[in-house]
Amino acid sequence: MVRASGDVQIPEVLRDKSNLIAGRWVNAVSGETFAVKSPVTGAVLAEVPKCGPADVDAAVAAAKAAWPVWKATPVFKRAEVVLRMAELLRESAETIAQVLCVEQGKPYEGEGLPEVLETALNFQLAAEDVVRMETPIIPMRDPAKRVLTFREPYGVMAVITPWNFPTVIPSEYLGPGLAAGNTIVMKPASTTPLSMILAGRCIQQALDEAGLPAGVFNLITGPGAAVGDYLVAHPDVALIGFTGETVTGEAICSRAGIKMTLMELGGNGPVIVCGDANLAEAAKAAAFGCFYNAGQVCCATERILVDATVHDEFVRLLVEEAKGYVTGDPFADGATMGPLNNEPTALKTELHLDDARAKGAKILLGGARETGKPTGLYFPATVIDGVTKDMLLNMEETFGPVAPVITFATDEEAVEIANMTGYGLQMAVFTSSIKRCFWYADKLRTGNVVFNDSTDYWEAHEPFGGGGGTRSGHGRLGGRYTLDDVTHLKTVAIDIEKTL
Length: 500
Ligand code: NAD
What we know:
It is a single chain. By secondary structure, the protein is of the alpha/beta class. The chain has two domains: 5-265 and 476-488, 3-Layer(aba) Sandwich (Aldehyde Dehydrogenase, Chain A, domain 1); 270-462, Aldehyde Dehydrogenase, Chain A, domain 2 (3-Layer(aba) Sandwich), CATH 3.40.309. Helices cover 38% and strands 19% of the residues. The chain contains 15 helices and 20 strands. Helix 3 (93-104) packs antiparallel against helix 6 (194-209) and helix 9 crosses helix 10. The longest helix is centred in the first third of the chain and has 23 residues, at 108-130. It is globular and about 80 Å long. The protein binds nicotinamide-adenine-dinucleotide. Residues 160-164, 169, 187, 189-190, 224-225, 228-229, 232, 243-245, 248, 251-252, 264-267, 298, 397, 399, 425, 472-473 line the site of nicotinamide-adenine-dinucleotide (NAD).
């Protein structure tokens, strides 16, 4: 029974050879490693390979060699293998989730275990959807012609992912990417690679059981600026799936040239609380959006825009809700928030709060790192009022457990503030008017809008991604929509008069 992170047994397989290349678990060519430390306890959990260009070359070569066979594997067979991956992930869910929680910091019952189960679900959904990828037959002017379309995989797909959801975000690419017939080279984030390495063992086991050639799925660890950068520029990589910060996405796009990219980037999601909203519901959802995973979610509630007429009552309710979030060990009873995952995130949270305080905003709850904890990464649920448009809390993604309250006078002003930062991933509005719902749905520049629930509401199969023209990226993750993005449409015209 695990009661604290210190009780989690790091599986023996994570002690050595954590790179998967051409079906074999190996070390980096250089033999170099780096340490993965727990933000919960500060302990070193494992050393993983610090890869470089030679490892990337080997992984890409393996994926390239395996592609013709994997692509030619009948789609129902590919779906069967991907479904088996889902099964194996479910069987190992508890072990993977325990490791995920000690390396990432999130609570086990409420967040870590559900994340791994959603990871498995993403493989299952991809397997179910891929066999129904019908494509059009196109009527032509020329009566001799029959024109058909086929969805084709790109080839070698690079997948680069962040540390806030160490297995579910990779699965959003890997499930559809593999099911559609691409082969993969993936690089997990450097602070949270261990749970994905364990998940990778399930993926490889399913491929081995099916007798498929080595190299369909490859996994390498190492610094983003070196390994990731070299990988995305590699001439044999055809497609890139990236989730991470907007600036990193921009750097990758400039290195990738004309390669196809799916970019799932930063967000700055507001919750807009209208004068006609159910304030208790709005406060509950806003707190959840701010503090779930300690605010380290791309669609976290980064800002709360409140109608001035309901401001006082809403803020009172919000503070009450926020007091219910308590930091602690992911396995401790009553802990609803873990530590932040890493020091840069803690520093950015402090920077944004310092900026707001200096410009006149007022802290109502929390506001500084907690002392007396095993690491310096525990940050309490924080509520700050009097935030204005010019503050970093409004203009930039904070990614910490902060609820910044901004007041607005009209719906038009709320839309102006919501849209002004250039990010547009997921926004939420609380209102009891269906007319207002449609008005906001039309005016908000974002990929996703939620009415009367949190910005952190999603289901695995709904299309999710940045709104057109925003800094939150392009492409859709979720259900069958990703299958469109990881394949290209091939058109085949046949002159039947000239056939035998
Ligand atoms: P990050 O951009 O720092 O890193 C993401 C990944 O990119 C890591 O694996 C990293 O090693 C790698 N990387 C870094 N520099 C690289 C380079 N030059 N070339 C190639 N790879 C490189 O992001 P992060 O701090 O790990 O994650 C947090 C960010 O991710 C937030 O901005 C958050 O909003 C965003 N995010 C977006 C979504 C979404 O669906 N839109 C989901 C989750 C997180």
